[in-house]
Structures are given as structure tokens and as C-alpha cells.
């Protein structure tokens, strides 16, 4: 995964655990695509100060993920739900081609709907 995307995802999961300044700097840098110099000028601090704050915040995000693993677990759950949706569709297709059980069809549709709701 590209570092920018990874930081953005980790910021979504753990951003509230950072200071307001750290969140702001990461948001400016990764989401708003501002340069270190632009952030420094807007905040009235040095470019090096911005860089140091961003690096510290990135380190904290990675440490939180290493300890808690919420983003990784979320990705695994999302992948699993996509697989469940695919399997439910396969069951439905097989049922339509072979036995045409209304009950099996209804269950497959319900499984797919529940999985899609959990993905939202």
C-alpha cells in the first residue's frame, strides 16, 4: 500500500488520539497536498518544525496500528464480507440452475444483503 494512502487510513482510525496540531498538519500534508513550506507559512513556524511534527505523528500512527491492528482487521473484515457476497451469489446462481429451492434462494439473498449492509 502506498504510504500516503496508508497514512490517510491510519489517520481515519487513530486521528482522534493525536493532538489537534498533529491532525491538522497530517491533514494539510496528505489530504490537502500542501507542501511543508506552505504549512509552515500558514502556521507561522519553520519548515523543519512542520516536518518534525509530521514525522512524530506518522510514527505514533504506525505504533498505534502495530499495537491495536484496527486498520488491518478492518481490511480483513471487508475482504471477508466481499467473499461472503460472492459466495452467496454463487449459491443463488447454482440454485437457479439446478434445484430451484425458494428457501435456498431466500437465504442466499438475505446473506448477501446482510453482508452488503455490514460493508457500508
Q: Output the number of helix runs.
A: 6
CATH topology of the largest domain: Arc Repressor Mutant, subunit A
Cα-based radius of gyration, to the nearest Å:
22 Å
Question: In this structure, how is the largest beta sheet organized?
Answer: none
SS class: mainly alpha
CATH superfamily of the largest domain: Winged helix-like DNA-binding domain superfamily/Winged helix DNA-binding domain
Describe the structure.
The protein has 6 helices and no strands. The protein is mainly α. The protein folds into 2 domains: 66 residues, Orthogonal Bundle (Arc Repressor Mutant, subunit A), CATH 1.10.10.10; 46 residues. Helix 1 crosses helix 4, helix 2 packs across helix 4 and helix 3 packs across helix 4. 12% of the residues are buried.
